[in-house]
Input
Amino acid sequence: MQTTSVFAFLKKPNGYAVPFNFWKGLCHLPPGFFVTETIIQQLNLTYAMPPKVYCSPLDYKRARHAIDYLQRHYTETISPIQLAEECSLPERKLQQLFKELTGETVHNFQLALRIEQSKEALANFDKQVKEIADAMGFRSPSHFNRHFKKQVGMTPKEYRMILLLESGYLDPVTISKT
Output
């Protein structure tokens, strides 16, 4: 009996990466499940076409290592120079390949990872927003709030309030009276 990957049906026939909105529209999941941008990004990286910037297979592998490295060390402040050294690639080449593979700069990719992890951490109601900002590697709570709002469209406190409402910990009627 032949088995196929769960993601095999998501791959487009030509093997190219597809935009975020395509995946979001395709993934009609049961209530309680959601597809995060990080998962979408991983799907796009998995099925991404080879980069347009010329590179050897070894350089391509090193650029993929950079992506994996950032995903493991997203809480650390890593400059493009440090990342290039980690991957044994010239900084400019790494920046080009990284942008081609992810559609983001190294800095923006790292911020997106931090925000996605922050969203999960905000579901832990025992931690304060300041503690989450520190744990995710943001230099200050205001820096965290600014980037969170830019990416998610609301502040971390507003996001947490929505989580509390959806989980049933808060009564919407009580909130509207205050």
